[in-house]
Amino acid sequence: DDIDDIEGLTARFWAKIDVREGECWPWTASLSGNGYGQIAAVVRGKKTMLAAHRVSYMLAHGEVPDDLQACHRCDNRPCVSPAHLFLGTAKDNMQDMMRKKKKAKSE
Q1: pTM higher than 0.85, yes or no?
Q2: Angle between helix 52-61 and 6-14 (nearest 10)
Q3: What's the pLDDT band for 99 if we cut at 50, 70, 90?
Q4: Continuous segment of H or E residues that includes residue 43
Q5: How many helices (H) and strands (E) does the chain have?
């Protein structure tokens, strides 16, 4: 993403996280309708809302390609811990979710 004020976004991002050692890092600000954290940013001159977990991945590891998603290992939508995120396609994300549902049913 071509974020206009990455320093400002970074400062606002870190102010909205409850960092917990070895656990999920809950997003403490605005959530989208489907429960994911979101943060306002100016991208290429236009104000938009970005997924907080995607911003977390970007700050920790670099740009997220447009064709990939920042997927949750923990399946906790408000979590923004970079240790709980991995890059994958939409198909990878769905397969990961289905594997976890199947495992949970068998336990």
Answers
A1: yes
A2: 110
A3: confident
A4: strand 38-43
A5: 3, 4
